[in-house]
């Protein structure tokens, strides 16, 4: 027996001697950190001309940094691992009772409970109807890419009023600062994926700034990520009692900054009337909340008239049951106005500053998203785009009157329809076919709006008669997909719907069962259709 006594230093010296003599036990490698599975086999193929694959025209990868940074729980990546990324918000512990915003948006009541534990059990979240929990963890996005996604439009999102209303925050409420931070996080995610894939430029997640760059990425079999912006007060362009808070010079500086960040598509207004345009209303209790936000932002509630034409905005419903945390924000003695008979149309349209912003976007070859515009504003915006024969117009998640789709397609624009469960999504696709054939616009897309405070597609009712069978193959047959597992939880689209972003391929397979191979091939033409609209917009730069 070898005996040593004395100091810890002596012991270390002896270990060093033994190591040199080859007698010490070799050090064991540190165990790999835990990680979500992807549950696919096979590699996504590249496609150059045409680009083949799905397009999601509307998702929010980095919205966890928006609204003060404490409204949405969890992150799409964390250098310290999944057990640091997929954690619940502090105010959701110990059992979800204090998570009034989560409870209200999920069930219509501010009361409720859920298991806040994420990794590794995930008993309560993510779920298709849980709006405050992370849905776009990087391994789930990877599964969507491996299953056929080739273009993802990542909308940087901000809403100053929602940030100010929610009591917890770690980020300031300024919208432009939030957009900058989310753009930074997107490039950090690209670097993170690169580091896991062998080094700079080798990852599957590629932020692109031009359609030519997007084509190169897709030709290499990777995911082209385009930056967009969906914010309620672009460049500080709010208004108070009709008085704008921005100038043309601010708009030019803002567009220049966003373009330099890599942003290539933008909304002009979102949720609240601003100095640029009037909005398409929200309905129901959510509409009451957003209308209050409009009052706090502008000093006025929405102004509506009874529509006289076929186009209309969403109906403003009578006040519903509000959580006390929201109800107390109504100024003393002030309630919602009495509105005329439906159908409702916002009296506010596109302002001269709004027209100037659209003209500035055209000068930069950017895509103009007309979702969330009032019918008056959308009509005026399309008039302006048509007068310039500008094809760079999109509807990314069906927040507009459907009668405008023909004008979008005739300009050469693109529609990525709001995701639903398979049957209503397939029905909307069927309705689009005659118009798209008439205008020569093949290719269809979806706007998943993940992490956008909207539900993901739920379980298809009656799916027991023809469920998705696992394993299944991607649209091109290159990748086989099993049920997705993260930690102890296994998801099945037949039981869970689209609980998170990784179940998009499963949802497409569910759509195939409902509507056949034709819709899947039309979705697979979506990436090419989106790139052609973008290319046409760039070709129109003066």
From TrEMBL:
Domain of life: Bacteria
Region (Disordered): 28-53
Keywords from the named record: Signal
Claim: Nucleotide-binding is one of the keywords in the record: no
Signal peptide: 1-29
Protein name: Coagulation factor 5/8 type domain-containing protein
Origin species: Planobispora takensis
């Amino acid at each position: 027996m070898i005996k040593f006594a004395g100091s810890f230093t002596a012991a270390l010296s002896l270990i060093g001697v033994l190591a040199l003599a080859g007698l010490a036990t070799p050090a064991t490698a540190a165990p790999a950190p835990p990680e979500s599975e992807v549950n696919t086999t096979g590699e996504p193929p590249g496609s150059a001309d045409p680009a083949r694959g799905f397009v999601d025209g509307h998702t929010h990868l980095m919205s966890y940094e928006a609204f003060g940074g404490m409204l949405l729980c969890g992150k799409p990546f964390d250098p310290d691992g999944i057990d640091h990324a997929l954690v619940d918000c502090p105010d959701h512990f110990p059992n979800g009772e204090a998570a009034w915003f989560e409870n209200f948006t999920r069930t219509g009541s501010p009361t409720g409970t859920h298991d806040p534990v994420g990794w590794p059990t995930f008993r309560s979240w993510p779920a298709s109807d849980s709006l405050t929990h992370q849905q776009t963890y990087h391994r789930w996005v990877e599964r969507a890419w491996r299953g056929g996604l080739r273009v993802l439009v990542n909308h940087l999102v901000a809403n100053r009023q929602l940030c100010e209303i929610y009591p917890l925050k770690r980020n300031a409420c300024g919208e432009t600062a939030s957009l900058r931070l989310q753009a930074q996080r997107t490039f950090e995610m690209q670097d993170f994926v690169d580091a896991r894939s062998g080094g700079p430029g080798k990852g599957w997640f590629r932020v692109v700034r031009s359609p030519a760059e997007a084509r190169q990425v897709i030709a290499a079999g990777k995911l082209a990520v385009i930056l967009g912006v969906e914010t309620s007060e672009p460049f500080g362009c709010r208004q108070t009692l009709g008085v704008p808070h921005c100038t043309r010079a601010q708009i030019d500086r803002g567009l220049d900054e966003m373009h330099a960040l890599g942003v290539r598509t933008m909304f002009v207004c979102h949720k609240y009337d601003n100095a640029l345009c009037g909005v398409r209303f929200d309905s129901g209790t959510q509409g009451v909340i957003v209308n209050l936000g409009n009052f706090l932002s502008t000093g006025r509630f929405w102004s509506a008239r009874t529509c006289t034409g076929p186009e209309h905005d969403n109906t403003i419903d009578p006040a519903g049951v509000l959580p006390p945390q929201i109800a107390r924000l109504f100024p003393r003695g002030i309630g919602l106005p009495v509105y005329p008979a439906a159908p409702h149309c916002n009296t506010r349209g596109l302002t001269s500053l709004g027209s100037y912003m659209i003209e500035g976007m055209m000068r930069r070859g950017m895509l103009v998203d007309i979702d969330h515009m009032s019918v008056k504003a959308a009509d005026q915006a399309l008039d302006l785009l048509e007068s310039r024969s500008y094809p760079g117009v999109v509807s990314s998640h069906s927040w507009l009157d459907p009668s405008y789709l023909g004008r979008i397609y005739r300009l050469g624009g693109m529609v990525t329809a709001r995701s639903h469960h398979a049957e209503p999504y397939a029905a909307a696709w069927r309705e689009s076919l005659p118009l798209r054939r008439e205008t020569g616009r093949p290719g269809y897309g979806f706007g998943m709006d993940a992490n956008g405070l909207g539900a993901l597609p739920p379980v298809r009712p009656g799916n027991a008669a023809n469920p998705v069978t696992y394993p299944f193959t991607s649209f091109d047959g290159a990748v086989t997909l099993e049920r997705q597992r993260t930690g102890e939880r296994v998801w099945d689209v037949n039981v869970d719907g689209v609980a998170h972003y990784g179940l998009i391929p499963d949802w497409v397979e569910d759509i195939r069962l409902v509507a056949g191979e034709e819709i899947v091939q039309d979705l697979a033409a979506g990436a090419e259709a989106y790139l052609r609209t973008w290319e046409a917009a760039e070709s129109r730069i003066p």
